[in-house]
Write the structure tokens for this entry.
Amino acid sequence: MNDVFAGKHLVLGLSGGVACYKSAMLCRLLVQAGATVQVVMTEAAEQFMTAVTMQALSGRAVYTSQWDVREPNNMPHINLSRDADAILIAPCSADFIARLVQGRSDELLSLLCLARPLERVPLLLAPAMNREMWAHPATQRNLAQVQADGALVLGVGNGSQACGETGDGRMLEPEEIMEELAAHFTAKRLQGQHLLVTAGPTFEAIDPVRGITNLSSGKMGFAIARAAREAGAQVTLVAGPVHLPTPRGVTRIDVQSARQMQAAVQSQLAEASIFIATAAVADWRPAEAADRKIKKDGSGEVPAMAFVENPDILAAVAGSEPARSGKLYCVGFAAESHDLLKHASAKRLRKGVPLLVGNIGPATFGKDYNALLLIDAGGSKELPHASKDVLARQLVEEIAQRLAPGHL
Ligand code: CTP
């Protein structure tokens, strides 16, 4: 299991801000990911979101007051802060940051932040405010101080704000906060590594409006990029045409064709210490792409089309000097339809990679779940059916083990 949120207990604190609407989704994502969530709201937060909604989503009664009589010892600030694996304030208003800086404790949320055991309960902040408030020297001064006092500030988004202005200060999207939290809880097993990963299909043009592609969604490669970044690696993701958001903290290079993908990979190779080829690269491309759309001429004749083979990106990288000298660890993928172990084992040798990851292509293309078969010189190992996020974290751990000093 590498389910980073399973068994985690979070206090989710809401202070006042329009971004409270995003915290409802955040709470849902956390619960879906296996965490338990105890919501605490300030009086201002209750102007934007009801405790009823947050209770329904978290499955737990919400706390809003330090005078809550439900606690037998009447000390919710102690009881709630002792059990938490982390306290996350989202949204964290400018006023709430100022309160943390001053060590204020006249309402439950700031009181429990002050009462938390500093050395074992981390405090994470997802600020949300108007861009002028964010840029104001007072806020920036407070942010520096709250970090010096041990809080982790997750950053803000940039874009259009509820007030109608555009700039920095939006709360991160729930999915982005999930990625930051996952990174926070993940051991930095790939610290110091630079991982280069290809993902998605390629698109080989026939003419300006048509082309050849395949059903790869890119989800596995994007999940690996995300998991590697969570584990501390610097990550560059070379992506074919897919509709997926860029994982946080990952450098993304978008390409269309196999040859563009190869050029992008080659341009990044000098920096890389790990290369993972998850892309479903088209094996062939039309020998010539027409400059103009090929038109029907009414005769009923279909155009003849000749193909040429695309470069094998993985085989070329695996045969390069850094890979052969052991400076670059290469991982290939094999999408098969049958006889997985046999075909994937043969492919590992043919591609010349130390580790090959087999999966059943038709069963996984476009899906959020997969199962993997890892094949290396020592034999094979199954990573059973799980979400691609979980499998990606397990694969990252497997690679980290193989890179660890002393591994045979
Ligand atoms: N790959 C690549 N460049 C190509 C073709 C494949 O980098 N032109 C990589 C894929 O990203 C994957 C691995 O090679 O990591 C296996 O690709 P696959 O297409 O499954 O294997 P093929 O060698 O094309 O064999 P076959 O089509 O016979 O299954």
